[in-house]
DNA sequence: ACCCAGGCGGGCG
DNA sequence: CGCCCGCATGGG
């Protein structure tokens, strides 16, 4: 019997719950258990479970169960090496941002597998959070490879890779509830299997990466920025969706209607290299306080 | 019934 | 370029 490893690491300024709930890829294919404040999600052929203890004076403990790689995976996935003092200092520069950072203290961006990010954010377009999760889970449950326990019993499914999904038809994605996005999913799966190795794009800088990603059908400016941010960790990426646009117009432009290009350059000037982190707080706080 | 959702592609001027 | 439209589907 293979014994799963349990690792504890101290964390500071980290909220597992806010991080999970804030509509990032983990929200769409992971699961959160409020009973023990834990998040479980598939990585390869394993399930990783991460539990965060209550606050202590020395910070919280993060307890991980899973394969030996669980520690490294969780540190990467939840960006635990980020210096939140530094980041908050750079983005909490006005009343709204201080309020957002205070209300959702410890909410982190997540860093996900690029294909996970491509699929989740294609599904996200012109959609709502609840339905994004239902569609994503439906696809995982239909196409993901079984994950088995030590006795060979299937306990869950992994995130399906692009090659597996490229063999499926748009009709099957429509049956998962994807609607008009089904054809984008089909084409993206084919493109990322046959024409573009998205795992080799990590070496590109943000502008180059953005252009490459926008070569995928169904990936425009906003979705490309989400993928750059949450699939490649480009913190300067600033995705502008309806909530970010509305909130920025309300807070910074007296309710005037602004072009996306104007909001982008405004954010670049105001938040610089941490614009993506600021964006997550604008999005989530703006949406939940509307 | 009507409006909206972490937008995008295509067509038009 | 910028702007406008249709788009699948389900919840408020």
Provide a descriptive summary of the structure in words.
With 290 residues, the protein is α+β, with helices and mostly antiparallel strands. It is 49% helix and 13% strand. It has 15 helices and 7 strands. It has helices spanning 16-21, 25-29, 70-77, 84-91, 95-103, 114-124, 129-143, 162-166, 170-175, 182-194, 206-213, 221-231, 242-252, 260-271, 275-288, and strands spanning 5-11, 31-33, 38-43, 46-52, 60-66, 146-148, 154-157. Strands 1-5-4-3-2 form a 5-stranded antiparallel beta sheet. Strands 6-7 form a two-stranded antiparallel sheet. Strand 3 and strand 4 (46-52) form a beta hairpin. The longest helix is centred in the middle third of the chain and has 15 residues, at 129-143. The termini are far apart. The relative contact order is 0.12. The structure holds a DNA duplex (13 and 12 nucleotides).
Task: Tell me, briefly, the overall form.
Answer: globular
Count of helical stretches: 15
Q: Name the structural class.
A: alpha+beta
Q: What profile does the largest beta sheet have? A: 5 strands, antiparallel
Uncertain parts? none
* Strand composition percent: 5-15%
- For the secondary structure, the number of strands is 7
Helix/strand order: EHHEEEEHHHHHEEHHHHHHHH
The strand line-up of the biggest sheet is: 1-5-4-3-2
Overall pLDDT level: 95
What level of helicity do the residues show? 40-55%
User: How far apart, in Å, are the first and last alpha carbons?
Assistant: 52 Å
Radius of gyration: 19 Å
């Amino acid at each position: 019997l293979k014994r799963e490893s349990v690792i504890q690491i101290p964390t500071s300024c980290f909220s597992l719950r806010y991080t999970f709930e804030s509509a990032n890829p983990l929200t769409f294919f992971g699961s959160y258990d409020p009973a023990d404040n834990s998040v479980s999600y598939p990585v390869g052929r394993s399930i990783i479970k991460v539990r965060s203890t209550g606050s202590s004076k020395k910070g919280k403990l993060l307890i991980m169960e899973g394969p030996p790689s669980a520690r490294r995976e969780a540190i990467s996935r939840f960006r635990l090496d980020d210096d939140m003092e530094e980041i908050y200092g750079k983005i909490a520069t006005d009343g709204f941002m201080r309020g957002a950072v205070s209300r959702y203290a410890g909410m982190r961006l997540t860093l996900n597998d690029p294909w996970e990010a491509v699929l989740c954010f294609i599904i996200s377009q012109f959609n709502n959070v609840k339905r994004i999760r239902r569609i994503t889970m439906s696809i995982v449950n239909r196409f993901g490879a079984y994950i088995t326990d030590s006795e060979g019993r299937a306990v869950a499914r992994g995130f399906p890779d692009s090659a597996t999904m490229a063999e499926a038809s748009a009709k099957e994605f429509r049956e998962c509830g994807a609607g008009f996005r089904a054809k984008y999913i089909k084409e993206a799966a084919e493109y990322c299997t046959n024409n573009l190795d998205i795992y080799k794009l990590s070496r590109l800088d943000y502008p180059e990466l953005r252009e490459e990603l926008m070569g995928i059908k169904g990936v425009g400016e906003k979705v490309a920025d989400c993928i750059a941010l949450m699939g490649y960790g480009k913190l300067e990426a600033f995705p502008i969706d309806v909530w970010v646009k509305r909130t920025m117009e309300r807070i910074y432009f007296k309710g005037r209607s602004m072009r996306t290009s104007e909001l982008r350059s405004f954010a670049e000037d105001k938040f610089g290299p941490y614009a993506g982190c600021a964006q997550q707080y604008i999005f989530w706080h703006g949406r939940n306080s509307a």
